[in-house]
Amino acid sequence: MRTLLITVPVLALVIAVVNAISRSSVKSRCTACADGKLADTDSSAEGTGGSIGGAVYYAIYFPIYEYVVDGIAYWAKIDRKSPNPVGFEENVQVKYDPGNPEICFIDGLQGKVVSRYNKDEYDKNSGGANLTSDYKWRP
Asked: What residues contact residue 110 under an 8 Å CB cut-off, 6+ apart?
């Protein structure tokens, strides 16, 4: 039993250190920069235990930024929660891996690419209309 009490925290510490080193390695590969703009917000529900037998749910919002590399537009969501869908920065600096532009960091947070499309093709065929979820291609 005593061995288990020592092993579990040590194992958790080792996992945390490996995760930090891995994230640092990924971040160090993101040497190229692109201008990003707020393209959309995503929402989900979070809940807390409520009184008198019910949970209370509320919406949280995440910003999705668009950046363009070699004619391909990427939409990346970052894990910056807000209870309000407004108030996110409109323009940001995106750092990405030149060998794999889907790996990116925005404001120090790793982005998750949720969509990409050929911007030149889209602009030519759409006449500059706004991109909506109906037109997004999701990987």
From this structure: 23, 26, 27, 78, 79, 104
